[in-house]
Design a protein that fits this description.
The complex is a heterodimer of chains A (about 350) and B (about 475).
Chain A lengths: L1 H8 L1 H11 L3 E4 L13 H36 L28 H8 L4 H4 L7 E5 L6 H12 L3 E3 L7 H10 L4 E8 L2 E9 L5 E10 L16 E5 L4 H11 L12 E8 L2 E15 L13 E9 L3 E11 L8 E5 L14
Parallel strand pairs in A: 2-3, 2-4, 7-8
Antiparallel strand pairs in A: 4-5, 5-6, 6-11, 8-9, 9-10, 9-11, 11-12
Chain B lengths: L14 E7 L4 E6 L8 E6 L8 E7 L6 E6 L3 E5 L6 E6 L13 E6 L11 E8 L3 E8 L13 E5 L5 E7 L5 E7 L1 E7 L4 E5 L16 E6 L7 E6 L3 E6 L8 E4 L5 E6 L5 E6 L4 E5 L4 E5 L8 E6 L5 E6 L3 E6 L5 E6 L4 E6 L5 H17 L2 H41 L5 H13 L4 H26 L1
Antiparallel strand pairs in B: 1-2, 1-28, 2-3, 4-5, 5-6, 6-7, 8-9, 9-10, 10-11, 12-13, 13-14, 14-15, 16-17, 17-18, 18-19, 20-21, 21-22, 22-23, 24-25, 25-26, 26-27
Helix pairs in contact in B: 1-2
Classes of the chains: A alpha+beta (about 350), B alpha+beta (about 475).
InterPro entries (chain A): Brix (IPR007109), IMP4/RPF1 (IPR044281)
Protein name (chain A): Brix domain-containing protein
GO molecular function, one term (chain A): rRNA primary transcript binding
Amino acid sequence: MGFKRKKGDGDGEEMESEGRGKPSFNGGEKRHVILPSMIKNKDKRSKVYAKQKHEKKLEKQKKIRERDAAEKRALELGEEPPQKMIPKTIENTREADETVCRPDDEELFADIDADEFNPVLRREVTPKILITTCRFNSTRGPAFISELLSVIPNSHYQKRGTYDLKKIVEYAKKKDFTSLIVVHTNRREPDALLIIGLPNGPTAHFKLSNLVLRKDIKNHGNPTSHEPELVLNNFTTRLGNRVGRFIQSLFPPDPNFHGRRVVTFHNQRDFIFFRHHRYIFETKEIKQSDKGKDGAAQERVKPRLQECGPRFTLKLVTLQHGTFDTKGGEFEWVHKPEMDTSRRRFFL
Amino acid sequence: MPRVIPPENLGCPPIRALTFDSLGLIKVTEARGKERGTPTVVNTWGEMNASRTVLAASIDDRLRNPLLAVARKDGNVEILNPCNGDLHFTYSVYGDDGCSSEENEISALHLFRKKIDEQAERSCTLLTCTKKGDVSLRSVKFPDAHSDSTDDASIKTWKACGSGEILVGKVDGSENFSLFGGRRVEATIWDLEQCTKIWSAKSPPKDNLGIFTPTWFTSATFLSNEDHRKFVTGTKSHQVRLYDISTQRRPVLSFDFRETAITAIAEDPDGHTIYVGNASADLASFDIRTGKLLGSFLGKCSGSIRSVVRHPEHPVIASCGLDRYLRVYDVKTRQLVSAVFLKQHLTGLVFDSGFTGEETAVANTVVESETEEIMDQEEEEIEETPVKRKKSKKEKRGREIVLEDKADEENEDEAEKAPVKTKKSKKEKRSRENVPEGEEKDELRSKKSREHKKRTKKVKHNQED
């Protein structure tokens, strides 16, 4: 190795030889810049690459050091620190979308007031959920359903039997249910969630993935039977707003804050992440040695989270107008391949 | 391979589209300028109320005094001025008692273009049809002011079906015949003068598995303006069917389109192209002579298409539906020209063909340039007075020209329009002669049925091939 490294020091000489190797490339003029990819010897080429990479790394470190120093200096002098750079992510370089809801849009609010979830969200009707399964379910399916029952208050499980889904919808309408959730299982693994609004609400079909049950979560807590708080993140577009309101209509509108139970639906890049937590506010005395920040605060309140309940990811497949009807139903939103022309386009 | 869009196709010809939505609003979208206009929402009429959802609309875009009829969910039919949205007249379909509005919504509405009496300038004739099959044909007169005007000189009502739900109602180009169909209601043709049923379809036979698909028509259109004998329907079982009254009661041609219900069908003025939209947001054009798919319109459309309309002059079609977008496509290249987000579920769409964008655009630019210099108070005057004058003059001129063009086009169409099959055309003639006699008709029918069997066999062979 040592021998090789020594040789590697003389790669300038090697470049020259490379230049000599291709005199006709640029006429009689000698090329000063030689791309490492033009080097044919792999050993030497990789050395050149390694050197370049190392130089880049050093440059970057230097830049970071300079930036930090500038910031420190600005702090010491009491000036405004230079602005921090915001990294580019797929979310913040998202394609401009005209359907994003704006708070000053009157038509939007009128439309929202007229939609199917309004009676539930205006507290005229208390939500009552029926949960059922596909025809065959086993192992993780029932376990998941029992956890869903603990997450969603006022939800009831009924065996599917051999009934048609349309018959079940009729039954649930008659029994004053406000929503129907069907957990679809494939190969003993829940893989889809069908949420049907009743009596005439939409039908949303979600793909379900990454299901982790409660017992598989480390240090999980056990949820209480209080009404949970609901966190809906990033449902920005008109479609997202509708889906968000749909999810909202599954839960009772007034949470019991004594329960300190939170259900989160976090939308990121059209994937809806479900999490279920308990939280607690702990008052902690800060040790004297730990006075890095402010020093004066002796006691501070610190919230702590404990995850409980299942953890899964949803992705919207279709949103159908009216109740479940695959043959004749009208779709409000279906995904089509021609929409997949950009990875920075999101629909929720 | 991604299709490369030539840049000259982008940009919208001057069109004016009125869309109707689930909140009962009427939105006017205009594309101005000579070539490369982008449609924008110009006006919004009406108040937001979910019970006033527009179910059906019909426009009479004649030169003088154009009218727009709108049927709402609460049973009211409104007659408006499509130029400025002024309400002329309102009446309720259910009469004064206003009962049974839940089950018996209006499913079809047609505003007649031909005048019954030429003297009465401010009158119109309306055909309405409710889901239970109550058809009413009434002529309405309305005075200039907002005074009382319920001078319903003639109301003809009849029942178009015994049971089932009527979902489709269309009136043909000559406005003497109408077509009804729906859930458990076969397609029927009615003579509007006598109010009698002159023809009804027969449901197609069971398929090779012995399965009978129940009747459920969701959309229909007459194939051309002059001919009431041929019409195309779309069913909930994703079938498109061509019927010809003069040959047989079963469909002459039927083919499947994708896998969800067909929700909208529009015809092209060339007489053989139809545009089909379905509930899972697919839009395609077919040649109805052969039943072949010409191509589909890709426009990132994601919601069920409620309405497809072909512009009478410009080569564009527009579609709208549950994805809250109005989309305009070029007919020839089948490329999306533009899409306008209109915020609500859209239920209907009509084109105002009397609109020529250039003049108003010029007027507007003039106004804008002037307003930059002149103070705010003067601005209003300028905007109101001269623009209107210019508009009215130039629009009229434009319309006249347009009309001439139209006539030319029609002549050409007639010349171009080759009959679908030569046999059929002969039969049509024969049947036209034989319409009054019943006995010969039966004979003909038996012949036709025989021939139909042959034809269906052929079709089967083709399918197998």
